[in-house]
Design goal:
Helix content: 25-40%
Shape: globular
CATH architecture of the largest domain: Alpha-Beta Complex
Structural class: alpha+beta
Largest sheet: 12 strands, mixed
Mean pLDDT: 92
Number of helices: 10
Length: 317
C-alpha cells in the first residue's frame, strides 16, 4: 500500500492514536486507494459506477470477463447461461472438471443445493472456501458437466457483493484465470495478453498481488469439514504437531503439489501449487519456496523428498 499516498482524511485517521484506523496499513479510500478499471475491446472505463453497470451488462449478455481477485485472476460468466458457460469451457480447454460458482446469498444458494449446519458454517466463515454441496436444482448444464455436486461459495470481496446485488442471475461462474494446467495469473498486462482468447473483457485494479493463491476447496464428511485444496483463507496458518520438526523442509510431490516447512512443533504448509510437470507451475513453486524461506526465516537442516520428482531437483541446488 505504500505506493498509494494517503489523502488528508486517511492520514489523519492513520496518525490519530484514538482512531480505530491508527496505523492500519490497508487504510485507503476512493480518493487515495487502489482503483478499478474495466477494459472492453479498445475502451477503458475508470468511473466506478460505469464499471459496475457495464460489468452487469456484459455478464447478463453472456460475455466472459477476466476479473482480478485477491490472489489472482478469475474468469467469470453467468452460471445460468448455457451458451456462456459452454463457451468458457471450450475456450479454456476444460473438458470435464466442474466450474466453481458464487452465489449472492445463502438463501439463493439453498434454492439449488442442500446445506447442513456444518456446511453453512464453512460457507459463511471469514475464510469463504468453495464448498462441495449436493445439488437438487441445476444451473446451466455446462457448470457441473453431469456431476451431482456443486462447488459453491459466497462473496468475499466488496466488488463481489456489489456485482451480485445488481445482477439478475443468482450465481456467477468464478473459475481460475489461467490456461489449463498453468498457475493463476497475477499481473494485469499478462492477463490481457494471455487470456485475450478466452475473456471478452478485463476488470483490473492497480494494486499488485504479492502472493498467488487459489480459492480453497472443502467438503463435509460426518459433520466434519475436510479440505481438498488448502489455499486462500487457510494458508499459512500452521498445523501443530507433537514433534520437534524445526528446520525440516518437505518438498512435496509432482502432482497437486504443496510443500511444508517445520518451525519448532509447527508444520507450515504452502498454498496449493499445482502439477510441477508444467514449467510455469514449477516457476510458481520456486517463487513460493523463496517467499516462505524469507517470511519464516527458514534454515534447512533436513529435506524430505519423494522420488525423482521436479521438487527433488530444486532441493539439490
Amino acid at each position: 500500500m505504500d505506493v498509494f499516498e494517503m489523502c488528508e482524511t486517511c492520514r489523519k485517521e492513520y496518525t490519530d492514536v484514538l482512531d480505530r484506523r491508527f496505523h492500519a496499513q490497508p487504510v485507503a479510500c476512493n480518493h487515495c486507494g487502489p482503483e478499478y478499471e474495466l477494459i472492453v475491446e479498445n475502451r477503458r472505463y475508470t468511473n466506478f459506477d460505469e464499471i459496475l453497470n457495464k460489468t452487469v451488462e456484459l455478464v447478463e449478455s453472456g460475455k466472459i470477463i477476466a476479473i482480478k481477485g485477491m490472489g489472482g485472476f478469475h474468469l467469470m460468466c453467468d452460471a445460468g447461461n448455457e451458451q456462456a458457460t459452454a463457451n468458457l469451457r471450450a475456450r479454456k480447454l476444460r473438458e470435464g472438471k466442474p466450474f466453481a460458482v458464487m452465489f449472492g446469498s445463502l438463501g439463493e444458494l439453498e434454492n439449488y443445493v442442500s446445506i447442513d449446519k456444518t456446511e453453512k458454517g464453512l460457507l459463511t466463515s471469514w475464510r469463504r472456501p468453495i464448498v462441495l454441496l449436493k445439488c437438487h436444482t441445476e444451473l446451466a448444464p455446462s457448470v457441473n458437466n453431469g456431476f451431482q455436486q456443486m462447488g459453491a461459495m459466497l462473496p468475499y470481496m466488496p466488488f463481489h457483493h456489489q456485482l451480485l446485488e445488481k445482477l439478475q442471475t443468482p450465481a456467477i461462474v468464478l473459475t481460475s484465470g489461467n490456461l489449463s494446467d498453468e498457475p493463476i495469473i497475477l499481473d494485469n498486462e499478462l492477463a490481457v495478453e494471455t487470456l485475450s482468447g478466452i475473456a471478452d473483457a478485463f476488470l483490473v485494479y492497480n494494486r499488485e498481488i504479492f502472493n498467488r493463491v487459489d480459492d480453497s476447496v472443502s467438503f463435509v464428511v460426518n459433520e466434519k469439514p475436510r479440505l481438498i485444496r488448502r489455499s486462500r483463507g487457510f494458508v499459512p496458518t500452521p498445523i501443530k504437531t507433537k514433534l520437534n520438526i524445526d528446520g525440516i523442509f518437505a518438498a512435496g510431490a509432482e502432482l497437486v503439489n504443496c510443500f511444508a516447512i517445520g518451525k519448532e512443533n509447527l508444520a507450515i504448509l504452502s498454498q496449493h501449487i499445482g502439477d510441477l510437470k508444467n514449467y510455469e507451475t514449477y516457476q510458481f513453486y520456486e517463487e513460493t519456496v523463496e517467499k516462505y524461506k524469507k517470511l519464516f526465516r527458514l534454515k534447512t537442516d533436513l529435506v524430505a523428498l519423494l522420488r525423482a520428482w521436479p521438487s527433488t531437483g530444486w532441493t539439490k541446488r
